[in-house]
Amino acid sequence: MAATDQSKIRNFCIIAHIDHGKSTLADRIIEKTGLLTSREMQAQVLDNMELERERGITIKAQTVRIVYRAKDGEEYIFNLIDTPGHVDFNYEVSRSLAACDGAILVVDAAQGIEAQTLANVYLALDHDLDVLPVINKIDLPSAEPERVIEEIEDVIGLEAQDAPRISAKTGLNIEDVLEQIVEKIPAPGGNPENPLQALIFDSLYDSYKGVIVFCRIKEGRVKVGTTIKMMATGASADVVEVGYFGAGQFIPCEELSAGMVGYITASLKNVRDTQVGDTVTDADRPCSAPLPGYKKVNSMVFCGMYPADGAKYPDLRDALEKLQLNDAALQFEPETSIALGFGFRCGFLGLLHLEIIQERLEREYGLDLVTTAPGVIYKVHKANGEIIELTNPSNLPDPAEIEYMEEPMVSAEIMVTSEYIGAIMDLCQERRGIYISMEYMEETRALLKYELPLNEIIYDFFDALKSRSRGYASFDYEMKGYARSELVKLDILINKEEVDALSFIVHSGTAYERGRKMCEKLKEEIPRHLFEIPIQAAIGSKVIARETVKAMRKDVLAKCYGGDISRKRKLLEKQKEGKKRMRQVGNVEVPQKAFMSVLKLDDR
Amino acid sequence: MTDKKELELYLHIPFCIRKCNYCDFLSMPADEGVYIQYADMLLEELKEKAGVCREYQAITVFLGGGTPSLLPEGQISRILGGVQEYFSLSPNAEVTIECNPGTLDRQKLSAYQKSGVNRLSIGLQSAINQELGLLGRIHTFQQFEENFALARDIGFQNINIDLISGLPRQTLRDWEYTLEKVMDLEPEHISAYSLIVEPGTPFYETYGEDEQRREQGGHPQYLPEEETERDMYQRTKALLEEKGYRRYEISNYARQGRECRHNIGYWRRTPYLGFGLGSASLLEETRFSNPSSLKEYLEGNYTRLGPVLHKGPSAKGTGAASEREWQERQTEGEGYWKLSREQQMEEFMFLGLRMAEGVSKVGFQAAFGINMEGPYGKPLQEFQKQGLLAQQGDAVFLTEEGIAVSNYVLGGFLL
Asked: Taking CB atoms and an 8 Å limit, are B351 and A565 in contact across chains?
């Protein structure tokens, strides 16, 4: 590629509330600029993980370089950086934004501004990005573009009168978006002659190329042979290849210079050497200071992950190490459980992050996992003055040694239409929320602010919120320190045996209720055995709830139809397959999913 | 003659006047034109398959359905004529036809007898007319009684009666009544199955949820309680034994020497060939099935034996297939599943254990050249410890308790 005129580059991302059409717009832009013909387009090109397509969400930031011939006759290089939309991935979003000069804000013409719209816009403005609003889904019968434009102006304070009114689905008015990208998003700054300063916004492990670092060159240039250095981790290596992002492929080029977005491979084999947010510089001619904003991401939610087959423990470790490369927020350390054997205590940004890692381990690495109840980090203040950061309930000290405990809190913003305010306030109340304020954004919609304990929202809060508001509530949160709380450890006994992997920390006020629901849920999950199985919940030695799985008394195969043995075999094999997904607890077979499903207890 | 290998023949007649509410068999209503076309195709299939099975001798023939007795007797005679013409049939072969009350008359029964049928299997299901109505049967108990008397009068001396227990709202007393009425007629054989609520049937729509509740240990609303079902099963054995019927298989009872040889073949893994729509075969340790689409079958699409017998060109598909391929191709009505040695052992166990006398250790050793304890030491030991299996001399068999939860036990023999 010939040297690129810096003034013809536009680096931008698309931000939106979930389902407002971010990925569809990205697809349309790629299609319109002719990078792929529509025949080649597979819907949502950028969401290339199977999981992303299935869930309709973006998990990993994805980047693509597009050439656009504008109406002024010039060719422009667009670097589109697709960002994750979920609150769990805030840090990734923040790093992606730092690689951009502008952002397209997609707002649904029917739904208007939602909680994540606000959160994302504020994040973009924090990074000094020029925000270009786009009104999507104007083809919907319920679309009210003018109302939404007013809302954007009133609530966010963003000029939006000439925002393109588009339908990403049908491709209507996409040209307007492309032209406005050229007009309204600034060309990148930076001087190619300065020392190299590049921001890592993502990285990927490739078994042939090693670590592939995705970066935005802020200053200077980098090419094959440059010795680069990671400023935070200190790792250095010689550059093997640089290039930019085609649709679904890497295209090598001679060099990357200030203003460009591209990738670097540099014979880095250690997955921990490249951390999202770190600054890459030239080891021989380093820049004076790293780019701002790098922080080590802290996990918020913890759970135990165990291989269903104990022999797969090393495989699980390898897989976690590989995933960690692309995901600085994933943490893990070895632990053991009496019920589950050897595994890892893993830290995540949130429950979605946890579920995604779990699914990726299962699908991409073919691992069969048992996951324990997720928990948060509790601070245990012991009488002797020691403070323990507790991530595994089994490690809780004897209650006699504990002076008090603290739990993490979040500030939550919930946007909801007025008819569901009551229902949502009830929900927050049940989850031990502290009401802060309520403002009406417009006549029929309000923004509720609550302080909530993190451990009350990590399980199923989002699902509960959606179901109780019929999908009309949206939600965003940020961490807000620790607060003292009355917490107890709830133990579960199956057939009189305590199952360490099922123990969890809970507020004393809700312990009874939780214990009862856990027992009910386990009763549903545990298949009948030839003997009766009591399931009990206990605090210390006090049993607070009990259920019983009745003994199986009859289970006989049906008639053999015209010698069709395959049917019988299938039945028996299904039964055997089910058994494989069981964990032996004493003499009871507990389905692996029971360890996780006991968390989804909201029964409304 | 005896140097020929034993073979069983199953012929499927997939037609019924109407489908019963619990039935998920391959059956459908059709008109007489179709019956004749179908019989033509069966004859073609018999002829072709017999042509490549010369080293086999048929020891049993079973006409099952659907309702074979729905066909005009002339068609049955043609079909059985074909069997005799094309196959070498053992002189004392057991030849059974399934019949349903409401489709039988003297003319048909006489024709069957003349065609070589020596065993009748009559689908009664219940002696209570209200229950027959619930099941969607087309007959009453009285019609059955008339048919039965007629069959005896014509000279049938080997008759089975099919019954179903565990019907919705059925009490233990109801079931005993049915058993008593049937025993009064002194049939040679009784099959007594527990109702299985199969997906895709009208019963599933109505009772599917109820069954699931029961399966999970809850109380059913319409179906009998699990304990009641157990009682029904135990009462069946007790009552029938008093009258000289022995339970020789989980759901089958017979007077001495009147056990159904054809069905025993399935449990003992005697080779068998299926003819007609959707029917299954086991030959040379290979399992395969015919297509289940009537249209396809009538166009001559049935599974050829070439690939199994390793002679002649493979008409369809290849030889041995992996299980997955096999399953995929089964849906298209073709494909062969060559059983691995392990799968043969599994079948030996999970099919054989359905027999009251169980499986023979010597038999296992003879078939596979290894001790049964080798692959199955652990389940044999554990199930015996749990009182689900017992051993006597050479035989390993299910105990009463083991039969009640046989699914669980049989599953333990998959490797």
From this structure: yes
